[in-house]
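User:
Note these tokens:
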Amino acid sequence: MGFARADAPQLQALRCLWAALLLAALSACASWPAPSEPAASQPDEPVASCRAWFTRLDRVVIQHRVNDAEDHRVAGFPQLRSSRFLASFRERAAQGGVAFDDWLGLLQARGTEGHGIEIANLPGAGIEALAAVAEGWNNSPPKDPRAAVAEQTRHCAQVLTDADRSATVRRTLLLERAQVPDAYSTLARALGVYAITRLPFSAGVQRWQQDTLDAFAREAQVAPGGPSTTRFVPRASEVGDLGDAFARAPRNALGIPQLDERLQQQLLDRHAPVFELPTGAGFDRIGAMTLAPGGTPRVDTSQPLVYRRMAFTRQAGQTLVQLVYLAWFSERPRAGSFDLLAGQLDGLVWRVTLDVHGQPLLYDTIHACGCYHLFFPTRSLRARPAPEPGIEWVFIPGEAPEPGAGERMVLRLVSGSHYLTALNTARDPVGEPYEHRAESVLRSLPWPGAESGARRSLYGPDSLIAGTQRGERYLFWPMGVRDAGAQRQWGHHATAFVGRRHFDDPDLIDRRFERVEPAGAGGGSH
């Protein structure tokens, strides 16, 4: 499309008109009071500088491949990161007020933690390049370059968050973007003709479920704690009645319990499980995760250890506390010449979901690949029917036993595969004691093969542990699970091949279970 050509008189008239308008505009500008320079530019300068800082920081982090994948980066908000749990509060946060402020603060906390991990893992060259800029902006910079980078990052995170909070457009944009995509590849499912290939996979899942039910039935006939078994038990700790402390714990405007560090550790101590395995093979011993000089992960089985974290989920309008335990084995050894499931490292995740009174409501478990998701509900829950046939919905090998006073849950595992085949309870169990550490330490481990003081995450920027790939990935890719069988980081566990399900779905319990009132209850909800 173009303009029609005008003749000379018309052009001359247009020129005169534009000249008159320009003179009028200039006269008007000359009569306006000129704003002071600070009032015009000062409010935006810190925000622009801090955006530039995060751009530089993220560029260096990516260059050195130390990006931490646990939480999801929010596009356009470099200081914030989200999770599936936090994303589930977007509707509540949209109401504004304290709810939005608390939600925004949690997003910032996730971002600050993620950036802190990345800064800890950066090599010296990356830190020095960033520290030179940080010290230039900081009036009293710390002497340690890494501390200077961390301080500048925290400062800029607060500057950007304050600006985002005060701008309606930014708040609206954040509510739209603070979502977490699922862990499935729609493209892979399309290329793999998922609608058809899911049928044989579904049949395979049903066979595995039947085998698991048979194994639980057999193990139910075997006396626990036999002479050829080893029990790894949590180191003894004195934990009194936690009911009152749990009930008194405040909740923020989103309804999330605010548990102090002492209560968190007491809860994790109280519900720590016992691991029971056949005695003898090194690959059946749990241990501390270390990095070899070349960066390869190794499990030090001379130090029995379990990693643990606290998480949250939502059920019936309430936020519930979850206690998560992760035990690492050195490998899943080959069971034959054509074993697609064997490989380096094997992790078992055990989770206890507490009700609003601090009592166990549901137990469930996966391996660190996201595979073999088993549910063990207490008598307070009943499974809902699957919304469609053939999908992996809720697989329950049996109802959870109820530990009494002084009793712990005992997980009996198969040698090699580390499949869970029995749940029992034991009072004051005896065995080889294990220590515990926060699971977050796996995101920044000492790396003896690099420069002095170097650190590195167990997980790669893609959330996977390098070298733990399994042969099954060549067969399972049509189900859309990336690198099926590889061990992976929290927040990236797809736990169903047929259907869509994540271990950290905030509505995992709400969608799949309904509450059952105990006999004689008055009908109120917990």
